[in-house]
């Protein structure tokens, strides 16, 4: 124990009093002022939308279309290849479910569902994917729809916010449109599923095995209830188009079979597969 007369060593850090110089104070104040101004300008830019991250250009596409996806790359690792194969298999199963639903619809009504319904004045009402809901066990969802009102009427809005698993490709991340409605990653063949028309299978003179019914889409997705969820396969398949998978797209034939179509498919063959009654040759397809 130290005696009262002994002095303990003094800690220089505790005993040193820091007195900032005028120059130091000026530097600190200048730094605070600069930081404040920077935050103020940044805040103004955010308000003006300069730093708002958007993936949709409202002027370029309707409010229920998602068109931000780019061409998927060929997988390089074993894990990526396994994931690709799994996603393709699951998407094929969804196409098989859609095929079964369309065939059940045909068995019930004797015709295919109309591709889209419109009024005489051209107001779009409902699409083919809505028509087949009861045949993919979506009875409750179907019963919630007011068919006397267009699909995008406020009375139907909550219905079309609900996702339908069979209409989603697991390889595609986008599942919700900017307007909050649920997307579909599949489109019907507009040359077969026509506006306000219901064709029987028997009218497919080119053969059901050689006529596309529906196809995976790589971008420009629509809400599943949107009557615009149709496309000419020739317009969405090809080397200049974004495909669902790196090398191509899976197509559902009218027979119920699912075939893989390369991005480099011969345009003449693709035309023959897209048209139901052109009598074009499909070659070795």
UniProtKB/TrEMBL annotation:
The keyword Transmembrane applies. Residues 86-188 form the DUF1559 domain. Keywords: Membrane, Transmembrane, Transmembrane helix. The chain crosses the membrane at residues 20-43. It comes from the Bacteria. The keyword Transmembrane helix applies. This is DUF1559 domain-containing protein. It comes from Gimesia panareensis. The lineage of its organism: Bacteria, Pseudomonadati, Planctomycetota, Planctomycetia, Planctomycetales.
